[in-house]
Write a structure and sequence with these properties.
Blueprint lengths: L5 H30 L8 H4 L2 H18 L12 H22 L17 H34 L15 H14 L5 H18 L2 H22 L6
Amino acid sequence: MNNSSPATERNALWAYALPFAVFMGGLALISLAQSFAPAENAPLWLAEPKYWVFPLQTILCGGLVLWFWKTYAWGASWHILTAVLTGLVVLALWVSPQWLLGAELRREGFNPDIFAGSAALYWGTLALRFVRLVVVVPLLEEIFWRGFLLRYLIKEDFTKVPFGTFSWFSFGMVTVMFGLAHFGPDFLPALLTGAIYNLLAVKTRSLACCVIAHAVTNLGLGIYIMQTGQWGFW
């Protein structure tokens, strides 16, 4: 029997939702900074704020996840092979519009070559970008989408809902919202991705497996980006 107090419920809500909220705030900060940039000759930090916002997101959001680490119910990770295969399937879906439909190449985006004149700045920027992509984003997104929202849409006190509990309403809503959060050229792949990661949560009942799958997808995507120079996939 779960006798969790209101204070415990609030702490769980902070733990599962705050890292994602801070991450989304960072994306809003990028738009805000760009709105203040003059039309011409804007300094780099205003014209391209992602080059300092992304590292800031990595540090702040990663720190929050570590701070709340013991709060998360990770579940067993025995299905690691399933998680890895799922991540590879999602990777194929994410880049398939180019291979199958001839979608336009994505050359505009976070290009680390802008710092090619300084080896330390280039490799430091690239390292933080991969930490964000492969570690921080899979953790905070799976903690929020599958760990929190997939359960919260079943019952407000989501901590009383076992991870992976199936509901058509929560499954469908999280799928659609995950897609909308990636609205743009990645919208349709994101819809499929949301459904696949949700299904993985239901089948494995393991948040750890969802994080692993997401990390495999993002690692593969990062390698693809570096090989093709399609910075828009970041």
